[in-house]
Amino acid sequence: DAMVIQNPRYQVTQFGKPVTLSCSQTLNHNVMYWYQQKSSQAPKLLFHYYDKDFNNEADTPDNFQSRRPNTSFCFLDIRSPGLGDAAMYLCATSLRYGSGANVLTFGAGSRLTVL
Amino acid sequence: GQNIDQPTEMTATEGAIVQINCTYQTSGFNGLFWYQQHAGEAPTFLSYNVLDGLEEKGRFSSFLSRSKGYSYLLLKELQMKDSASYLCAVRDSNYQLIWGAGTKLIIKP
Predict the structure, then answer these.
(1) B98 Rama sector, left if φ>0, alpha if ψ -120 to 50, beta otherwise
(2) Which helix (H) or strand (E) holds A94?
(3) pLDDT number for residue A1
(4) Could you give the CA distance from residue A75 to residue A9 in angstroms, rounded to a whole number?
(5) Which residues are paired to A10 by β-bridges?
(6) Which residue in A86, B45, B93, B95 has the most C-beta neighbors within 10 A?
(7) What CA–CA distances, in Å, run from B23 to A60, A92, B100?
(8) How far apart are CA B35 and CA B21, in angstroms?
(9) What residues of B are in contact with residue A108 (Cβ under 8 Å)?
């Protein structure tokens, strides 16, 4: 089945220790997104890629970086995690960006704990 | 600023009907989405409305009134597995998706 796969599902790190979360997709979608979601809050878009074009949200901290080495993979790097970065990180894909019934397909998420 | 309002939590009984409301104030409108999110899991797509009116999909229906900035999700014949959060999201004039915080729906036997 075509899908979006995130690894790891659960990540525990220490304050300030870098973390990398990965996302892969078999849907052949052009757009990949990284969202941060804290408990009972709306998902917050960190950045998205349309093919190789990187789009950073204005309020995404510099502590968060992303890489998309090819159309199937995308990585989220948190350079120096703080306690406030503990959250669920959701990767999503869509065929295109913008108009129409542009449905997002989400991965199962990576839950980050910062000690 | 842009804003999506949904009730924080609702409770309903198995077999009953529940309506989850969503009001929005956004810079333009290019469609409204409803997603279901079970605890600790990823959101999954339920419905999309871009024109006024009711879209029906099995036990779930979604309604949109663009002039009122209002939508609702109607769930019929509630089942225990419908216990989840329901997220309303609006795409604005820049095609950015603005998300609500979600409505946690609790189903009781």
Answers:
(1) beta
(2) strand A87-94
(3) 67
(4) 14
(5) A111
(6) A86
(7) 26, 25, 9
(8) 13
(9) 41-42
- Dig out the tokens for B26 from the structure: 């956004």
User: Within the 61-80 window of chain A, which residues sit less than 8 Å (CB to CB) from chain B?
Assistant: none
Mind listing the pLDDT tens digit for each residue in B39-83? 988 899 999 999 999 999 999 999 999 999 999 999 999 999 999
> How far is the first Cα of chain B from the last one, in angstroms, to the nearest whole number?
40
**What is the rounded CA–CA span in Å between residue A44 and residue A56?**
12
Mind spelling out the 3-state secondary structure of B55-98? EEECCEEEEEECCCCEEEEEECCCCHHHCEEEEEEEECCCCCEE
Average pLDDT value over all residues in chain B: 95
Q: Does B8 touch chain A (CB under 8 A)?
A: yes
Q: CA of B100, closest CA in chain A: separation in Å?
A: 5
Tokens of B49: 């409305």
Name the β-bridge partners of B32: B49, B90
CB crowding B43-61: b at 16 or more within 10 Å, else e: beebbbbbeeeebeeeebb
